[in-house]
Amino acid sequence: MKRILKIHDSDNVAVALSDDIGKGDTFDGITLSEDIPQGHKFALKPIGKGEEVIKYGYPIGHATVSIAVGQWVHSHNLVTSLGPDVKYGYHAGTSHRSWKVDGDIPVINGYLRTSGNMGIRNELWIVPTVGCVNGAACAIAERVRKECELVNIDDVRAFTHNYGCSQLGEDHVNTRKALAALAKHPNAGGVLVLGLGCENNGISALRGEMGDFDTSRIRFLNAQDVEDEVSAGFEICKELACVMNGDRRQPLPVSMLKVGLKCGGSDGLSGITANPLVGRFSDRLVEWGGTTVLTEVPEMFGAETILMDRAVDCVVFDRMVNLINGFKDYFRSYGQPIYENPSPGNKTGGITTLEEKSLGCVQKGGSSPVVDVLSYAHAVTKPGLNVIQAPGNDLVASTALALSGCHMVLFTTGRGTPFGTFVPTLKISTNTPLSEHKANWIDFNAGEVVNGESWDSALARLIDKITAVANGAALRHELNGAKDIAIFKSGVTL
């Protein structure tokens, strides 16, 4: 096992890969002057006050004091160099690469919906239009689970939330779009949309937002229109369950698969193990004609030009610029600091500045061209690597990826988390100790690449895992019942 890593030839820091690197240890002629925690950085050469600290081949901030060779580099001597505004330039042709598909291409055994889309789960959902009917939605779901025959139904779930009324402008529109996208997701074989009857996100408005849909699979009920909304909702769901019990998986091309890319609870190994591995998978799925989606816009700050340089054309480039600047304006509109990042957990794990976090984060997108940039809750339509508007918050961002049409989310983590959104959320640990300590949370360990596993071997393992999940294998959060949604809230509540 390697104990330290210099990631790029131009870096002036290296990363501790193990938890036993201490004062007095010598690496390549450099003697450490203090203990270095796993995932943290130390100086490979003298770094003067104000001088840039280089990691991944890019600046991750500047030194606040002079840093000697072998000294720990972290929050006590390194700060961000990011400013509020950046001028961007389009470089035509830098995104293009030729794809060559080698080896076997997986086949997904999924559910072909009448829309022509593929589902990888066959679940029955109750979707409240407004938080006022959350309790009724949960009661309906519980009764269905107890009283209905569910021979080919993976789960019955009510996706509660606090919104749908007393919202204004774009904030209200976002909620309506999100719930419409949720109701139409192909992982659901049947959906009851449950309204109250007086909310501003009423059923008629929501139906209009949904456009075309299968009326035999998506049904509607206003609680105020019936004497007993739980009984009425149960009867509708019983009918849906009868139809869904006849659904069967069939072989479908992997090019139909859409996968969201997310990281959270990151550490100093995130950009070294799990995120680059997910990036390799993203490139492979794109090679196969599939789709991957990247988000967490505030966690692109400092690394956004890497994605901009891969825009397929100037239109996509302009959308990427507007996405980045729009999120900065969003922070300003509320009088909040743009670069209030990383989190305390990130810092404990070895990430010091937002630039460092972002440079690790964008690696999940591999090296593929960016084919489209979309606003929140819009459906992804172009195969390839897409970018969608959403914040860094784990559940909000993962929900946004699913709302765009992703069948599953790959979630890399160095700290661990038990959550899952409404589609399979595959937890990938950046380090082996986490996978062993929280085996009830973690689905896949990417930490083996620092223990000597080759990238090809790790990628083959990950592809096998993703294929199994797409074919119906349950993830930890599904077994634990952790399946929730979080809508991106932005605006005034009346």
Automatic annotation (TrEMBL):
Highest taxon in the source lineage: Bacteria
Pfam families named among the record's database cross-references: GD_AH_C (PF20629), GD_AH_second (PF04295), SAF (PF08666)
Positions of the SAF domain: 11-79
InterPro entries: GD_AH_C, GD_AH_second, SAF, SAF_UxaA/GarD, UxaA_altronate/galactarate_dh
Transmembrane annotation, as ranges: none
Keywords tagged on the record: Lyase
PANTHER family: ALTRONATE DEHYDRATASE, ALTRONATE/GALACTARATE DEHYDRATASE
Recorded family membership: Belongs to the UxaA family.
The protein, known as: Altronate dehydratase family protein
Origin species: Heminiphilus faecis
